[in-house]
Amino acid sequence: MGLNKDSKNFLEDFNTYLLIEKNFSKHTAKAYYSDVMSYLLWLDNESCLTVTFQKVRDYLYFIQKFDYKKTTLARKIASIRTFYKYLYRERLIDTNPTVNLSAPKRPKSLPKFLTTTEIEKILSGIKIETPAGYRNRAILELLWATGMRVSELSGLNFGDLNLENNEITVFGKGAKERIVLVSERAKTYLQRYIETARPLVAKGFKLEPITDKTPVFINNTGYRLQNKTIRNVINDTVEHIELPKHVTPHMFRHSFATRLIENGADLRIVQELLGHASISNTQIYTHVSTKHLQDVFEQAHPRA
Q1: Do 84 and 38 share a structural domain?
Q2: Which domain holds residue 25?
Q3: Which candidate in 32, 33, 39, 285 is catalytic?
Q4: Which of 32, 144, 150, 172 lies at a C-alpha separation of 20 to 30 Å from 25?
Q5: How does DSSP classify residue 164?
Q6: Quick check: is 268 catalytic?
């Protein structure tokens, strides 16, 4: 199998489109790039501009034999559909061969969350004796208090902070801007990190003067902290306290939303705080809350 030269160029332009215009995360863009690359390799020397609906169906039939999970298959279809939408948008094709292409229904699963006790155990398990440790505590306090995505938190600049009003401006998916609220406890940890720990995190490295564009959270060389580091912090802490759960940064977001729903928060308010484009994405937390209540009932009631 080879790769049509023009198709390769289209793929590179498509990748730029995903990152710049669609504001996809690097992880998602990489997955889409890989999916489309596999498809183009299957086409061999045939141009991607001349394929028909049936040709795309033939490819999907071809990859069925690899027994991909439904979620993986759905993403591969989404990648190809997005690629042809891009080609159509750029007027490189007259008709989109994927218009009538349907994706398999994704299995519905409830988001996993942590109890308040588990979160407090994780937070108290972070060693704050070092500047990096105090930074890590401030990070997890913010994730728990605001429901921010880890990418949103690592992307924070000083110009996004309005701590006098307990507010932070966040830029989420699709570069959509929203305001999240900060609890007094999280605010205290953040302020102390900025005032005392941050200048010491990058020991031996000269930090640039703080401006609105300066990253809030930095690594030991003074550059913006990466998402992977935050994941490693959580993994190390969970392993240290021997919590029998696989914990991800996104579970803090799920836990934040679940607590709000359990305590009677309006669904529209939760949607706004999470930055969900559709309220249907937020409604899943009502199911999580109901499931949690059922579990508690079954464990506690003698005749459940």
Answers
A1: yes
A2: 5-89
A3: 285
A4: 144
A5: G
A6: no
Asked if 285 is an active-site residue, the reply is yes
Look up residue 34 and give its two tokens: 């890989």
DSSP 101: -
Residue type, 168: I
Q: Tokens 């979160």 belong to which residue? A: 119
Residue 110 covered by a domain? no
- The residue from 85, 112, 173, 178 that is catalytic is 173
Residue 142's nearest CA partner among 159, 131, 156, 128 is 156
The rounded distance, in Å, linking the Cα atoms of 127 and 132 is 9
Beta bridge pairs of residue 168: 161, 180
> In degrees, to the nearest 5, what angle opens at C-alpha 118 toward C-alphas 116 and 122?
115
224 is catalytic: no
135 residue type, one letter: R
Q: Could you tell me the maximum CA-CA distance found in the chain, to the nearest angstrom?
A: 69
Catalytic residue, chosen from 137, 149, 187, 254, is 149
Do 204 and 271 share a structural domain? yes
Q: Can 253 be counted among the known catalytic residues?
A: yes
Nearest to 143, CA basis, from 273, 30, 225, 256: 256
Q: Is 173 a catalytic residue?
A: yes
Whole-prediction pTM: 0.65
Q: How far apart are CA 177 and CA 139, in angstroms?
A: 20
Domain harbouring 145, CATH code: 1.10.443.10
DSSP state string for 249-272:
HHHHHHHHHHHHHHTT--HHHHHH
Residues 215 and 211: their CA atoms lie apart, in Å, by 9
Predicted confidence (pLDDT) per residue in 90-138, tens digit: 999 999 999 888 766 666 666 788 888 999 999 999 989 999 999 999 9
Tokens for 226? 């990466």
Same domain, 200 and 291: yes
How confident is the prediction for the chain on average, in pLDDT? 86
* Same-domain pairing of 81 and 130: no
105 is catalytic: no
83 and 137 housed in the same domain: no
